[in-house]
Amino acid sequence: MTDADALPELGRWQRTMVSDGTLAVECLERGDGPGVILLPEIPGIVPSTIALGDLLVDHGFTVVMPSLFGVPGRRPGVVGQVAAVARLCIMAEFRAFSLDLRGQVTDFLRLVAGDLAERTPGRGVGIIGMCFTGGFAIATAVTTDEIRAAVVSQPAAPFPVSRSRARSVGVPGEALERYAASRPDSAPCVLGLRFTQDARSGDARMVALERHLGRAATLVRLPSGADSSDGTPKGAHSVLTGAVREDPPNRAFKERGRMIEFLRARLAPAEASDAPA
């Protein structure tokens, strides 16, 4: 895709190649305020991801979106989505999920978080992972002092080919417990989100986060399918993007707003003024 083919929305974002010496990734950045790393879900930085990034910017955050797969702004077909999954699967980080080890993506994201913390006015930075990148968000958070808030939405990796993998978020339980105990305050520092009927993001991972993080986590299960009173279908998956309905507002819309408040409470300087509603 050429620059001429790019979505107009991308023109507002600064695009820079960032490398830690092992991994080189194009990162899109926009905004002025506390820093938030927004990790795209499969198939990449598509219009719905850009819209979420723009919303965070409108609410007073500096947002960095690493393009871990796909072409920013392009909505690929089935072949493109398969290619995106294939790229993830060959990364050492993705393979390491089954062994609860860190890998090259987490190391790269730690570099991004440290740089963003130095350049932005917040009390640290936040990170949002969705679907396949949910595990990257929590793995980065537990190894990075600069990250004060992690959002894990519909975590779907590693693939649930066994009971242990179905409840794994790619981080050993002991590491999660140390992370929870090391926080300087008692406020929750992890927000987890999933739909109750989402087969791609099973509840076992939420249960594991509850068990190991305790009060350090706020975990929200949004009703879907037969559980829903607002028409959210059984197949709903993307809590912060595709499933959001603004008029009339559904539960996903409300939880997206609460997610923004969570980030603001954890990151904003004490003297920060209220962001737009």
Automatic annotation (TrEMBL):
Region named Disordered: 223-249
GO MF entries: hydrolase activity
InterPro entries: AB_hydrolase_fold (IPR029058), Dienelactn_hydro (IPR002925)
Residues of the Dienelactone hydrolase domain: 33-155
Gene3D superfamilies cross-referenced by the UniProt entry: alpha/beta hydrolase
Residue ranges that the Swiss-Prot or TrEMBL entry lists as coiled coil: none
Entry keyword set: Hydrolase
Superkingdom of origin organism: Bacteria
Pfam families given in the database record: DLH (PF01738)
Keyword Hydrolase in annotation: yes
Protein's name according to its UniProt entry: Dienelactone hydrolase
